[in-house]
Amino acid sequence: MKINKIFFPLLISSLALTGCFNGPSKEIKYPDLPLTPSDKDSWEYFKDENGNVEPWTMEWYVNDSTFAWNSYGSDRVSQILKEKTGVTIKFTVPVTDDGQKLSTMIAGNKLPDVISVQCWYNQCSQLASQGYLYPLDGLIERWAPSFKDREQTDIWSYFREGDGYTYGVPNFAYSTKYVNDSEKMEPNGCLMVREDWYIEAVNAGYPMTSAQSFIDGCKYIASKHGEAIPFQLGAFTSEGNSSIDWLSQYFCSAFEDKNGNYVDTRLTDNYQEMLGFLNSCTKEGIIKNANFSDKAEQIRTNIARGKVFVSAVTPQDYQQAFLNLYSQGIKYIPLVLRNSHGDAPILQDISGNGYLLTMVTKNAKRPDKVIKLLDFLYSEEGQRLVAFGEEGESYIWNEDHTAIEWSDRYVSGINGNAEDQAWINTLGLYQMTLLMNLAYINKVKPLNGRRGVDIYIDNMKRPLTPYSYNFKPTFLKHDTGDANYFTISTKYNKIKTKWAEAIVNIIRDNNWKQAYDDAIKYAQRQGLDQVNEFYAVSYQNTKQLLGVEWGYPANKPGYVQPNTVRNKGADNGDFSYWRGDTYVDPFAE
User: Fold this and answer.
1) Which phi and psi angles does 515 have, rounded to 5°?
2) Which of 63, 169, 577, 585 is most buried when burial is the number of CB atoms within 10 A of its CB?
């Protein structure tokens, strides 16, 4: 089962790659195609009067090298999709996530019918403002009026451009239509520790809840297990490193001051403390030199082979590796690491405004059919198809359609029946993630018949829920119509590119503080102050849009630090949040 990452960068990554734009003007013209009535779901109009559906083909570019639907065309989900809509989709992805393929397509006006781009990339706004995209509003009005029933007002409003139109819909967005912003959720990324080795470390006197205890515990395990990689960070790329984002949250690097004003987390004392900690880990050999050049595939292999003691990667990006280990009896549990003040971590939860924004380009040969396809995929019926398969076959509703359960055959398959397991493998569940609405899927997903591995994966991060908070104010809504927007974007991109290089030097340099100061001075010469001034305005606008006074959880009235320390000083969160079989706590008193 392929699950794409659900990671939304923090404030320092809100402006991203800039492509080459010399495209057509903004004039919006639509093809002269018959309008679609609103008396039924739009995709029902793929059928002619005899109930037949005409085959058609479209191209879909996904700006994420990790996306793959390997069983497309042969699995049941894609077959049902074709039966309902007639579509055959040709997917393309970049080889590497450096943005070059997308920029090249834009520069040559070679965009396909549909594109899915990281929704914080400023190409999304640029493509809209330069006239490369159809507004979804116009497409829906003409050819998919039932799509209006799918509207998630808060999310669609967030992505509305300055001209008043919305040009794309995101996947992995958590709308208040399905999830209240006050609901507690698990974190997005976190520290995971190999349980059996962790028990050894704690019993030896290293609970690893402070920086020094963490380092000592890692060194202890390295001395006991020569094959161990004590501390594994994610891959370093031109975009930076997501592990550093997660660790900065463990060290409580605030993005807002006590007065509610925007703060560049890189300039905070806690962020610098986190860098010093990572530098010490490198000097002590806790972080291996290979980590700075390893790609995601090598990191996945390290985890899958059981070599990694503490992982700081985004767990859902490496789910299969953790699954492989579980089948060998090796489990990972969360770890609560605190800064030098003993502050409880403040972690970003999995909710947000989305990951990939899917947009219809003006190169689309049949935008009327494309928007009907998107209408189906975005609908609750489409969501159930891609997540749970075919109603009556792999899943069933209860009588009043308030709960879903896996079918007897599906349960038989997941419980080991070889024939039924082979059938499950032909379904193609959780492959089409490009418009996936996890806020809905997680509300209705079946919990019957779950195997131990399903319970384990579902609960990996759940004990950290007490430390996890809504970070939606960090998903800045910039005024793309501001005269300074693209100037700020250019300044930011220069800073971002250099910072991604500098962060490696800071972590490895004998004088990390000097390396940090040099990187900040470079950023200031490139206009960091102007960028942060622009961001400060965007931050206030975003909070106003969300209707919140305080963004950083510790600033909110009534905030109380959680405390989940267990016996022997171990701290791995609150296992009462475990959903399913009871977790057996090896440190229970």
Assistant:
1) -65, -40
2) 169
Spatial separation of the C-alpha atoms in residues 378 and 46, rounded to whole Å: 16
Q: Which of 164, 155, 159, 167 is nearest to 120 (CA)?
A: 159
pLDDT digits (tens, 9 = 90+) for 214-261: 999 999 999 999 999 999 999 998 889 999 999 999 999 999 999 999
- Helix orientation angle between 319-326 and 296-304, rounded to the nearest 10 degrees: 10
DSSP string computed for 142-161: HH-GGGGGG--HHHHHHTB-
Query: What are the residues facing 308 on neighbouring strands?
Result: 229
- Token output for 249: 């949250």
Q: 73-87 as b/e, with b when 16 or more CB fall inside 10 Å?
A: eebbbbebbbebbbb
CA distances from 459 to 188, 245, 451, 453, 507 (A): 13, 22, 12, 10, 32
> With bands split at pLDDT 50, 70 and 90, how would you rate the model's confidence at 98?
confident
Residue among 350, 351, 358, 472 nearest 119 (CA)? 358
Q: Which tokens is 132 given?
A: 């490369």
Rounded mean pLDDT of 547-571? Answer: 95
Among 482, 498, 470, 473, smallest CA distance to 533 is for 482
| Nearest one of 354, 353, 355, 371 to 114, comparing CA atoms | 371
Measured distance CA(267)–CA(279) in Å, rounded: 17
Q: Around Cβ 549, how many Cβ atoms within 10 Å?
A: 11
- Taking the C-alpha atoms of residue 232 and residue 315, their distance in angstroms, rounded to an integer, is 12
197 touches 228 (CB < 8 A): yes
Separation CA 336–CA 328 (nearest Å): 25
Selection from 446, 440, 424, 442 nearest residue 71 by Cα: 424
Please count the other Cβ atoms lying within 10 Å of the Cβ belonging to residue 163.
13
Question: 10 Å Cβ neighbour count for 392?
Answer: 9
Token code pair at residue 405: 């359960």
Give the whole-angstrom CA distance, residue 531 versus residue 43: 45
Contact (CB, 8 A) for 476 and 441: no
- Contact criterion met (CB below 8 Å) for 465 and 188: no
How many Å apart are CA 133 and CA 131, to the nearest integer? 6
Global model pTM greater than 0.85: no
Residue 86 neighbours by CB under 8 Å, 6+ apart: 46, 53, 54, 55, 56, 369
pLDDT band at 454 (very low <50, low <70, confident <90, very high): confident
Rounded CA-CA distance 306/258 in Å is: 43
d(CA 38, CA 59): 27
pLDDT level of residue 399 (50, 70, 90 thresholds): confident
CA dist 560 to 346, 468, 490, 556, 570, Å? Answer: 11, 13, 40, 10, 20
Q: What is the DSSP letter of 166?
A: B
Q: Do 312 and 236 form a contact (C-beta atoms < 8 A)?
A: no
Residue located via tokens 């497409």: 139
**pLDDT score recorded for residue 125:** 87
Residues forming beta bridges with residue 461, ordered by sequence position: none
Closest CA to 62 of 369, 365, 431, 368: 431
